[in-house]
Structures are given as structure tokens and as C-alpha cells.
Task: inverse folding
């Protein structure tokens, strides 16, 4: 399928960048900034704002594209196999975060607790691992976003990467974590709104959920893949769910962005912020993953270069060209929200656990 006009991609970049910088500037004018508030806001942020920021951070481009890929590759069981590890991770972290906030109330990063609990040597090891995780996930956003926009719009990969990185680094620098929290709140609901409109349109184009299931059943016979309809297929649990759980299962406990939010939220709302943040992400992952079934139903098996292409491919085949624009906007907001969160986690570790020490 041919790429959309490159000018459309640049218009999306310009519009979203202006919006994010304006929001961050308004936040900057409203809050009093110092080094502490830049890294952990006011330590009294209302828990719903922190919860929405967590959900927005987890709702990155991978949540939309990889969740659909999981179902496209593993059938209907892929829906829960991708969606469950992250909320389980934050359920565990809710207990840890509550206790940590009590033991190290003035902390800033994961290192604040580790140093208090285990001493300096362990502190350095933990911080190096956490720095690596923060760096990798920050670069995920740049690389993934550049690949997406170069593929959808025929843009220069290098130019797209530079613009994406410059935008979320720039507006994060305006007001630090306050920028990340407020823009993440707005980004989350924009992405949710786009999905709530777009996915039902896809279902309607395909004749409804019942018809989609029937089409998947027919494709399962054609490709001799009866397991596509098996919700608990053993090979999927072993080769997909356990792998996903092992990878995403450490997101909360080893991601400094989550620890920053544990220190930023109002003390009485720590547990609620972690629980609601993790579990409110799950419905969006389930909704996105269902597009993988649509791809199977449309006979795309074996016809895509990579599984992550299934979501854009279904949108392009069934919806008007404008829908691809909205999908690109949703993905870009998801990238921005996650990029600023992990960038904040990375810089907080450098500032608090290395430079300040």
C-alpha cells in the first residue's frame, strides 16, 4: 500500500508540537518550579492525575501495534496474554510503593529507596540497571516513531527521529515532571477518544463482532490454525505470555518513571494511583489487540512484512484516508507521553543518584 503524502506527516508533527509546548508553558506559569518539583512535582499531586499519567505512559505505540500483533500471531488468546502482565506488575508495585513512601518519604528515584535499604554498593548496581532501562525505553519511542512515520508518510527516517526526540525533550524541559503529568493526562484521553471512535467503525465495516468471529473461524480452517480460537493455547502461554510477563512484568518495579510518580503523588493516594494507573491501561490494550483478529479475518496472514503492520493495514483497507491521520496522531501522542516519562526517569537518576551524590 502506498504511503500517505509526506506533507500530512509534517502537519501532524507541527500541530502536536505546538499543542504540547503550549500546554507545558501554561503549566510552567501555574506552578512554582525548583529542582525538587521539576523531578517529583510537589509530592502532593492528586492520585487521579498520576494514575492517568501512568496509563498514558504504558499506552505507547507498542501498546497499540504490538497488542494487535500478538492476536494476529497467536489468535484470540493473545488478547489477555499481552494485556495482563502490565496491570499485574503495577498491582505488585502498589504494595512496594506504599511501603517505600513510608520508609523514604523524601526520595526521588528508585535509588533513594535502594540506598536506604541496602547501602551504597547495591545502590550503584540498581541505578545502572535502571538507567539502562530508562535509556532503552526512551530510544524505543524515537526509533519506533521514526519507523512508523517513515513507513506511513514516506518521511526521512532520520528527520522523523530528530523531530520526535526534539519535541518531547523540549516540552519536558519547560516544566519537568509537571509537563509530563499534565500532557500525559491530556494525551491519554485523546488516544482513548480516537480508539473509541475508530475501532467500532472497523467492527461496523466488517459486519459486527459476530461476523468477524465467523470470518476468523473460516480463516482458521483455511490455514489449519484451530488454535486461533483457543483462549488458553499451551504454546501461546509458553512462548508468548510467559515471555511478555517476564519482560513487561518488571516495568513498574524497575522503571524509575514509576518510582518518580510514587514519590510525586499525595501520600494517601499512592496505592490507588498505581492500581488505577495499571488497570486503566488494560481496556485500551484489549481494544487495540482486537484489530489483530480483524487482520486474520481479512486474510492478511502471510501477507504483511511484520505483524505490527496489521493495525495500520486494517485501518487503510477499511476506513477513509483521514482515519490513518487520526491513527498517526494517536500513536504520536502515545509516543510523546511515554517518551517524556522515561526521559524524566533517566534524568532524575542522573541528577539525584550520580551528580548530586
Result:
Amino acid at each position: 500500500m502506498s504511503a500517505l503524502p509526506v506533507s500530512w506527516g509534517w502537519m501532524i508533527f507541527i500541530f502536536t508540537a505546538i499543542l504540547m509546548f503550549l500546554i507545558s508553558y501554561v503549566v510552567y506559569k501555574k506552578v512554582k518550579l525548583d529542582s525538587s518539583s521539576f523531578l517529583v512535582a510537589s509530592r502532593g499531586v492528586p492520585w487521579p492525575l498520576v494514575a492517568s499519567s501512568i496509563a498514558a505512559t504504558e499506552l505507547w505505540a507498542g501498546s497499540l501495534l504490538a497488542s494487535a500483533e500478538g492476536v494476529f500471531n497467536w489468535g484470540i488468546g493473545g488478547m489477555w496474554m499481552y494485556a495482563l502482565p502490565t496491570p499485574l506488575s503495577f498491582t505488585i508495585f502498589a504494595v512496594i510503593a506504599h511501603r517505600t513512601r513510608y520508609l523514604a518519604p523524601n526520595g526521588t528515584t528508585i535509588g533513594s529507596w535502594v540506598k536506604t535499604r541496602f547501602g551504597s554498593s547495591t545502590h550503584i548496581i540498581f541505578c545502572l540497571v535502571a538507567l539502562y532501562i530508562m535509556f532503552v525505553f526512551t530510544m524505543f519511542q524515537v526509533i519506533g516513531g521514526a519507523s512508523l512515520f517513515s513507513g506511513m508518510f514516506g518521511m526521512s527516517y532520520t528527520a522523523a527521529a530528530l523531530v520526535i526526540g526534539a519535541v518531547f525533550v523540549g516540552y519536558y524541559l519547560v516544566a519537568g515532571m509537571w509537563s509530563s503529568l499534565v500532557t500525559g493526562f491530556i494525551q491519554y484521553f485523546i488516544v482513548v477518544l480516537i480508539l473509541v471512535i475508530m475501532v467500532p467503525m472497523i467492527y461496523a465495516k466488517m459486519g459486527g463482532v459476530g461476523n468477524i468471529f465467523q470470518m476468523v473461524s473460516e480463516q482458521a480452517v483455511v490455514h489449519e490454525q484451530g488454535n486461533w480460537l483457543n483462549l488458553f493455547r499451551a504454546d501461546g502461554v509458553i512462548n508468548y505470555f510467559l515471555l511478555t510477563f517476564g519482560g513487561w512484568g518488571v516495568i513498574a518495579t524497575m522503571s524509575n518513571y514509576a518510582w518518580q510518580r510514587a514519590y510525586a503523588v499525595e501520600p494517601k493516594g499512592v496505592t490507588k494511583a498505581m492500581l488505577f494507573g495499571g488497570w486503566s491501561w488494560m481496556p485500551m490494550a484489549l481494544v487495540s489487540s482486537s484489530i489483530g483478529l480483524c487482520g486474520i479475518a481479512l486474510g492478511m496472514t502471510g501477507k504483511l512484512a511484520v505483524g505490527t503492520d496489521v493495525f495500520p493495514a486494517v485501518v487503510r483497507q477499511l476506513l477513509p484516508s483521514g482515519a490513518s491521520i487520526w491513527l498517526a496522531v494517536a500513536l504520536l501522542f502515545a509516543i510523546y507521553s511515554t517518551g517524556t516519562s522515561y526521559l524524566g526517569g533517566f534524568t532524575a537518576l542522573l541528577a539525584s543518584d550520580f551528580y548530586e551524590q
